[in-house]
Amino acid sequence: MRGLRKRYGPTLAVDALSFTARPGQVTGFVGPNGAGKSTTLRMIMGLDRPDAGSALVGGRPYRSLRTPLCRLGAMLDASAVHPARRARDHLRWLAHAGGLPRRRVEEVIELTGLASAAGRRAGGFSLGMRQRLGIAAALLGDPPALMFDEPVNGLDPEGITWIRGLLRSLAAEGRAVLVSSHLMSELEGGADRLVVIGRGRLIADTSVADLLEAASGGRVELRTAERQEAMTVLARAGATVTAAGPGAVTVAGLPAERIIALLTGEGVAFSGVSEHRASLEEAYMELTRDAVEFRAVAGREAP
Ligand SMILES: Nc1ncnc2c1ncn2[C@@H]1O[C@H](COP(=O)(O)OP(=O)(O)OP(=O)(O)O)[C@@H](O)[C@H]1O
């Protein structure tokens, strides 16, 4: 995506958006409801025309691809299936239209665990089965790039774990996988990189590891039954100390070794000292806080 922009009447849905989903990685595409994710994915597939900028698949516009199913597999809307059509027949007409062999249909049915449901009409499918069918359709052409719009939305924990594993294995095969979500927690353990957008604009384009490290901010978790004494000792040594539940303290501004030395020296008992690991959700909150300030500044600068 380079400088993508899309306006719907008064709404600037996507604004100056640039990012790349790279081979061998799961790129999480995250932003709150209405941030512009679906609009971006539609522009990638040529279903919406950008007002400015371009979206390329393997260096070319999607609409110019001669064998699109073999270049980019996509699930934008899992319910976009004729309810009276059986799952296998749905996949067969797609394969036929894309010039793909029939045996590929059976392969993707196996890959997505749909074997026992393939003869049933899609209208009676649960949400989880519809998602599997949408993913099967995306995999038909064995494409090097895949994108899924909110694939875990509304799924049970088992379904979420399955999709997460599938995305990881597709990326491990060297494919570029772009997956959108409005919940950061859904991407925890699933994405390598994150592209975060808000109100159509890029907020962050970063590896998950870098984001978590920045959000963890060198803080240390301390477990102690003598919380008050520990907080007094550490605050006196210049640390910023926050009570984090019964028997737990979060310490900023002192390394773990120094905390251990201080508490031992003062005879304060403790049972654990560990580096604080921020959750992806925490990291997201920090990012969004910055984004709000950024938006306020951007708003003032606007003509
Ligand atoms: N066809 C359309 N006509 C008018 N406005 C639209 C259209 N499509 C999207 N929008 C608006 O553009 C903005 C971005 O919408 P979009 O659906 O891309 O967001 P999203 O990040 O995918 O949100 P969600 O997580 O809710 O799916 C929203 O304000 C939406 O109301």
UniProtKB/TrEMBL annotation:
SMART domains the record matches: AAA
What residue stretches are annotated with the ABC transporter domain? 1-224
List the Pfam families hit by this protein, alphabetically.
Answer: ABC_tran (PF00005)
Identify the InterPro entries for this entry: AAA+_ATPase (IPR003593), ABC_transporter-like_ATP-bd (IPR003439), ABC_transporter-like_CS (IPR017871), P-loop_NTPase (IPR027417)
List the molecular function annotations (GO) for this entry. ATP binding
Q: Which UniProt keywords apply?
A: ATP-binding, Nucleotide-binding, Transport
Name the protein family: Belongs to the ABC transporter superfamily.
Protein name (database record): ATP-binding cassette domain-containing protein
Native organism: Actinomadura livida
